[in-house]
Amino acid sequence: MLLVRQAGPKDFAGVFSLAKLLDSYNLPADRGYIRQLLQDSQASFARHLPRAKARYLFVLVKRGGEASPIVGCSLIIAKHGVPGRPHLWFSLETLPKYSRTLRLKRSNRVLRLGSTQDGPTEVGGLVVAPGYRKHSQRCGMQISFVRFLYMAIHPERFEDRILVEYRGAMGEGNRSPFWERVGKIFTGLSYKEADRLSIFNKEFILSLMPREPIYCALLPPLVQMAIGAIHPAAQRAARLLQSIGFRPLPQIEPFDGGPYYSARREEIRLVRQTRRLRVGAPFALSLVEARTGQRMLIGTDADGLFRAAWVRGSVVGKEVRMGGKEMEDLNTQVGDTVYVCPLSR
Fold first, then answer.
1. Which site in 217, 266, 316, 329 is 20 to 30 Å from 247, CA atoms measured?
2. Per-residue confidence of the chain (345 residues) as pLDDT tens digits?
3. Half-sphere exposure of 312 toward its Cβ, with a 13 Å CA cutoff?
4. Pairing relationship of beta strands 104-116 and 87-99 according to DSSP bridges
5. Distances from the Cα of 166 to the Cαs of 234, 256, 309, in angstroms?
6. How many CB atoms lie within 10 A of CB 159?
7. What's the rounded Cα separation, in Å, for the pair 267 and 335?
8. Phi, psi of 76, deg, nearest 5
9. Do 54 and 202 sit in the same domain of this protein?
10. Are 187 and 208 a contacting pair, CB within 8 Å?
11. What's the structural domain count of the chain?
12. Based on C-alpha coordinates, what's the Rg of the chain?
C-alpha cells in the first residue's frame, strides 16, 4: 500500500534520486536546488512563506513509517511569475495580410514573447520511479491528483488560474529543435545551459530574445512541427489532466516549444468534487463494502502534517468509511474531519 505526504528536508536522498530521472526546470538534478526546495516545502506547508515564495512538494511512499522509500513526487508552485522572476511564454498569434494588387488575403502564424510578474499557480515536478509506473494502485494518478485535493482544502493559498507546462519535442541527441533554431540563435547558449540559468535568472531571455513577432513560416518544417508538441514521455500525464478540465492555451514554453495548459481552480473536476466529511466507523476487509466500495482520494492535515491515501471506501451522508489500516495510515479516528475526492477512473 502507498501513502502521499508532504515533503521536507529529511527526504533529500529519495527526492534527488527522482530528480535525476526527470531533470526538469522545476525539478532539476541539482543538489543545492533540491535542498532549498525541500526547505521551502516544509515552510510552505507550515504557512511560513508568502504565496510568492511558497512551493509544496508531495512524495509518494510505501506505507510503513517516515523512513519508507519514496517512489514518486509532484509539486505545486503557488505563484509562478513574481517581481524579479517573471513567467515567460511565446504567444501563438495569427497576423492577417492583404494585397489590393493581388486581391489576396494571407494569414501568418507568428510567435510573440510575453511575460508577467503576476503569474498563475503552476503544477509540475511529476515523476514516478520506473518500477511503479504501471503499478496496480495507479501511482501516477495518485501523486498527480493529490495536488488538486490539497488546493480544494486550502484554496486561499493559490491563484485562481492553474497552469501546467509540458515538455516539448526533442530531436536527435536529445536536443530541442525549437531551441536550436530560435533560442540558441539569439542567446548563444545550449538548451541545457539556458534551462539551468533560467532557474535562477531570466534577465538574459528578456534582454536577448526578440519582442518582435517571429514568423513561423521562416522556420524549418521540423521546428514548425515542434511548436506546441508534447514529448512522448509527457503525453499520458497530459491526458490525465485533460480528463479533469485542463485545456491548451495559445502559448508555448520559450525554450523547447512545449505547450501550456490551463484551468480555473474552481473548475477543475477534482477540486469541485472534493467534500469535507467525518470519518465513520471502520469496516473489516472481509466485508462486501471493502471489496466493492468506491476508489477515492482521502486527505487530512488536521495534525499539522498533510497526508493522503488512495483507498476503497464508501460515503453515506456526511460520513466516509474506510478500513482500519487506512485510518491508521492517515492518523485519523472516528469523528475526525477529512477531505474526500471520489475517483471515477
1. 217
2. 799 999 999 999 999 999 999 888 899 999 999 999 999 999 999 999 999 999 999 999 987 655 569 999 999 999 999 999 999 999 999 999 999 999 999 999 999 999 999 999 999 999 999 988 887 778 999 999 999 999 999 999 999 999 999 999 888 777 899 999 999 999 999 998 998 899 889 999 999 999 999 999 999 999 999 999 999 988 988 999 999 999 999 999 999 999 999 999 999 999 999 999 999 999 865 555 555 568 899 999 988 899 999 988 889 899 999 988 889 989 999 999 999 998 864
3. 13
4. antiparallel
5. 7, 9, 26
6. 20
7. 30
8. -120, 125
9. yes
10. yes
11. 2
12. 22
If asked whether residues 329 and 240 sit together in one domain, one would say no
SS3 call for 83: coil
CA–CA gap between residue 147 and residue 121 (Å, rounded): 11
CB 168 within 8 A of CB 226: yes
CA atoms of 133 and 140, how far apart (whole Å): 7
Phi, psi of 121 (to 5 degrees): -75, 140
> Which cell numbers hold the place of 314?
464508501
Q: Distance of CA 225 to CAs 19, 182, 320, Å?
A: 28, 14, 49
* Domain end among 245, 270, 295: 270
Checking DSSP bridges between strand 161-165 and strand 121-128, what pairing results, if any?
parallel
Domain membership of residue 308 (yes or no) is yes
Q: CB neighbours (10 Å) of residue 39? A: 15
With residue 4 as reference, give the H or E element that holds it: strand 2-6
CATH value at residue 199: 3.40.630.30
Instruction: Provide the grid cell at 238.
Output: 497530459
Residue 336 structural domain: 274-342
The closest of 9, 62, 18 to 36, measured between CA atoms, is 9
Listed residue (300, 320, 314) closest to 4, CA to CA: 300
